[in-house]
Amino acid sequence: MTDGMTDEEKRRDQLLAAPAATEEDAAPRIDVTDRGDGITRIDVRDDAVVRPGNPEEEPEEDES
């Protein structure tokens, strides 16, 4: 059985289901590129609000 939703629509629906969720919570955080020959590149987007790193350290200041 299919529900007619794309993977992106399912992701957005799930992220917005939490109480007090906003559209920003559902914003894309990564870009995935299939380079062929079994190589997949995953990059954290520059505009991602949530970024990987040590949560105990203060984030670096943005120089722009």
SSE map:
Elements: H1 7-15, E1 30-36, E2 39-44
Antiparallel strand pairs: 1-2
Strand composition percent: 15-25%
Main sheet properties: 2 strands, antiparallel
- The overall strand count is 2
Round the mean pLDDT to the nearest integer and report it.
84
Radius of gyration: 16 Å
Structural overview:
The chain is of the alpha+beta class. The chain has one helix at 7-15; strands at 30-36, 39-44. A two-stranded antiparallel sheet has the order 1-2. The chain is flat and about 45 Å long. The model has no long low-confidence stretch (mean pLDDT 84).
Summarize, please.
The protein has 64 residues and is α+β, with helices and mostly antiparallel strands.
Keywords:
2 strands; 20% strand
